[in-house]
Amino acid sequence: MTATPVDSGDAPVWARADAFPPAPPGWGWADAKGNRHPVANEAELAETIRSDRASAVDLVWTPDSPRMVVPEEVPALFRALHTARRRWVAADLDHAQGQLKIFGTGVLVVIAWTLWKHLPLLKSTLTGAALVVFVIFALIPWYQAWKRGRELIRWDSAGMQAAVPVLRFETWLNLQRAPITRLLAGLFCLVGLAQMAIRGHSLDAAGLVKFAYRHGEYWRLLTAPMLHGHPLHWFLNMGALLYLGRRVEVFARWPHVPLVFLFAASVGGEASARFYNATSVGASGGLMGWLGFLLVFETLHGRLVPRSARRRLLAGVVLTGVIGLLGYRFIDNAAHLGGLLAGMAYAAIVFPKSSSPHRPSSTLTDRLVGVLSLATLIGSAAFAIWKIWSASKGGPTV
């Protein structure tokens, strides 16, 4: 027997009965790519979930449900889900503890080396970088695994039902198409490949070099967000881009994806030019703009997303602030803060408060300005690649 989703137009789209695809006859499950896997009966479906080690089961269907649902909506699968989650938490904790030891040892080695060289510990760029890597790749995964373990202790059938809204939200969001977000990701891939293939002075050629910007090269506000300092920088930003961009595109509609990014990246770049003297590159200003936009937009449209999902956005802001403090010598906190405030202001001005569960529609003006913004970003990526190529041929950079 399955739980009954909301069958009403007065509910957010992810909570409605028709949020997921129609269910085939009998029992079965679908993976994240939409592939369907029929099974013979309830016991076989439960065993599939119980033995699922890669979190492959995305949706399930049963004979009494006309639509697919998330597994947590089927009370008969509680024991299997509890067993699988207990195994996942144990594996994640074991892996995270190993990462703590590895990266923790690395931090201690860096600190010992810094002290041995009689360098100022709190002002050491290497120490700051080691701490940032430790937080991102060791401390945060360990905390997340520990938190899931604590939640699992209190997890019963009622707790499983309480988790359904956010699980439906995240699952539904992952199934939505976001072509504009993917297009922007493609632009960053192209510029990243250009940086790798055309080795040289790419940061000087198209980055936000403050001296050049202050002397009239204002185009650097647009090209600098397309560049990244190193592969890890690119990788982290791409992960944020794909999640935040999809969320903006799905709920606020596509024109605001390039619009918010362009506005926030420009404001973040201007803040960087005023308060951070080193050359700046990276999409972080625009990404923080998306984050700030979602914080305000989803607060003003409180019925669009579950409250717990909004809290995760706030956690992202706090985490970015902590990382910025640890790496203040090489992280452009001015661009981060400028982009965040710009995105928040944009949402507050453009989107009035609403109690409707429906996503706002885009106007003709939105679409026209969205097209212009998207064209600007495409042109910025092309111009950045051209400047990198020109610099590799001996052309002027600054």
3D architecture notes:
With 398 residues, this protein is mainly α. It has three domains: 13-76, no CATH class; 87-166; 178-392, Up-down Bundle (Rhomboid-like fold). Helices cover 64% and strands 3% of the residues. It has 15 helices and three strands. The protein has helices at residues 42-50, 78-116, 125-153, 157-162, 164-175, 179-197, 202-206, 210-214, 220-223, 231-252, 256-275, 284-300, 307-326, 333-350, 364-392, and strands at residues 27-30, 36-39, 59-61. It has a three-stranded antiparallel beta sheet. A hairpin with a 5-residue loop joins β1 (27-30) and β2. The longest helix is centred in the first third of the chain and has 39 residues, at 78-116. It is globular and about 70 Å long. The N and C termini lie far apart (68 Å).
Rg, nearest Å: 24 Å
Tally of contiguous helical segments: 15
Please count the beta strands (DSSP E, at least 2 residues each). 3
In the residues, how many domains can be counted? 3
Oligomer: single chain
Q: State the CATH class of the largest domain.
A: Mainly Alpha
Protein structure class: mainly alpha
Biggest sheet details: 3 strands, antiparallel
Low-confidence runs (pLDDT<50, min 5 residues)? none
User: CATH architecture of the largest domain, please?
Assistant: Up-down Bundle
Please state roughly what percent of the residues sit in beta strands, choosing from under 5%, 5-15%, 15-25%, 25-35%, 35-45% or over 45%: under 5%
Separation, N- and C-terminal Cα atoms = 68 Å
Q: What would CATH call the homologous superfamily of the largest domain?
A: Rhomboid-like
| Biggest sheet, spatial arrangement of strands | 2-1-3
CATH topology annotation of the largest domain: Rhomboid-like fold
